Amino acid sequence: MAHQFAHGTYLVTGASKGIGRSIALQLAAHGTELILLARDKKALQQTELEIKKLHARSNVSVFSCDLSDRKTIERCVKDIRKRHKTLAGIIHVAGYARPGYFGELPPEEFEKAVRTDYLGAVFLTHGLHDLVESGGLISFTSSVVGYMGVFGYTSYAGPKFALIGFAESLRQEMISRKIQISVLCPPDTETPGYAEENKTKPYETQALSESAKLMTADAVAEKFMRGVKKGKFIITCNGESTMLYRLHGIWPSLVFRIMAGMIQKAQKKRK
């Protein structure tokens, strides 16, 4: 059951920048109608202008929506339902990460991560899933950290792991409606959000990041589009993250030993 992007209306969250913006631009090239969501309406409008400059006939609407706030989501859902009776797909990209040592992260960071990275996607999907047509798409954005814990990401890993579990359950419920469920799991990606993460990353996390190749948002968006067309559930984005996904699934203790060795090496170097 592979979804092929055709004419229809796609909702994209986190569309003002980064991976969400890149996915919106690639969808516009397919001639789709777009609903773009993000907190920053000015940045969203810039994405809208860019799309219309490249594709003059594109039909784009934007909604300012804080996905960490349930009441804001409910208002946004009502507005969208007034304007649209059907959707070809819902594509969740919005996310939030603040790396740091577990003992130094305030409890509020864990609550914010759960609301933004998990509940925001769940609540928005709950409010709009019935509009998705048979043969449509509902996709989520987790992370490499959503299937493999990483030093410094204790507040981020939990919601991203939860998102994959939620998507697996939803996938079974959507079989009868022939709706494809996919989960994008990007590695480190050059986005404004990644730049913010670098401000608080522990030394060990920085060392782990240095061993991985940084992808561009456009490259991740291309992998997403291809993965959906192939009917993939978990969409990994490069050879390294695909290998880690498979290896962690069959031999998690080995992955832990490799990660532990890299962390210990970084800690010795720091001393």
Structural overview:
The chain has ten helices and nine strands. With 271 residues, it is of the alpha/beta class. It has one domain (9-241): Rossmann fold. Strands 3-2-1-4-5-6-9 form a seven-stranded parallel beta sheet, with helices on both faces. Helix 5 (154-173) links the parallel strand 5 and strand 6 (180-185). The model has no long low-confidence stretch (mean pLDDT 95).
List the defining traits of the structure above.
about 270 residues, alpha/beta, Rossmann fold, seven-stranded parallel β-sheet, two-stranded parallel ribbon, 10 helices, about 15% strand
What's a concise summary of this model?
Helix content is 51%, strand content 16%.
